[in-house]
Structure formats: C-alpha cells, structure tokens
Amino acid sequence: MVIDDSNTIRRSAEIFLTQGGHEVILAEDGFDALAKIADHQPDLIFVDIMMPRLDGYQTCALIKKNSRFRSTPVIMLSSKDGLFDRARGRLVGSDEYLTKPFTKDALLAAVQAHTKDKTA
Predict the structure, then answer these.
(1) Total domain count for the chain?
(2) CATH no. for residue 80?
(3) Which candidate, 18, 34, 47, 120, has a CA 20 to 30 Å from the CA of 27?
C-alpha cells in the first residue's frame, strides 16, 4: 500500500512496485488508508509524513496500535531527512524511513527487506 497526498508520488510508486511484480493499493491520506487497510490487509505500507488531516506519524501510530496490523511493516516516506524526523518515525513504530525522491531500486529493496518471511 502507498499512502501519499501527491498523485505524482502515488503513481510513481505504483509503477515501480508493479514493475517489481507487486500488487499495489493506493490511498490519498491517512483516513482513506485506514479504511482500505481493513479491507485489503496489505503486506507492507509506505506512508508519506506530510499529509493533510492525518499525517504519516499519526497514521503509522494508529496502524501499529491495531492488534491486527501491528506486525505489518510501515515505511515512512519523506522529503525531510533530519535525525529528528527519523527518530519520530521510530517512536510511532515505523520500520524504515525512505527519503523522497526515492528510486525504483530503493522501493523494491525495502519491499524485499520487509516481506521476505511472507514470500518464502
């Protein structure tokens, strides 16, 4: 699943992940994502930090507080690369932090790293 308020980022991630053989669910913001997570139960979630209504930190915290999805890897996406941003991501339970603009290789490597036990 890719959660980002930018249509360009969502589409880029969708293309990269689809080329890597993955099924992709898109969400425009945290509220949209929370509804779709329950329906689709994704194996991995990429979430933008800077979003309206419910930001990436809040979205990640809500996902991790839900016992059904606590073990689902959440990877933060952000154009901010500061130590504080990374630490805050860890505090809410994120599993990794990718800086935008990301590459196809970086996205696919993150998927590989966080889903290898499920695809064995």
Answers:
(1) 1
(2) 3.40.50.2300
(3) 120
Residue 116 pLDDT: 74
In this structure, is residue 112 part of a structural domain? no
DSSP 6-73: -HHHHHHHHHHHHHTT----EESSHHHHHHHHHHH--S-EEEESS-SSS-HHHHHHHHHHSTTTTTS-
Q: Answer yes or no: is 10 within a domain.
A: yes
State residue 117's pLDDT score: 57
In the chain, the amino acid numbered 36 is K
Q: Quick check: is 118 in a domain?
A: no
pLDDT less than 50: residues of the chain = 119-120
The string of pLDDT tens digits covering residues 52-61 is: 989 999 999 9
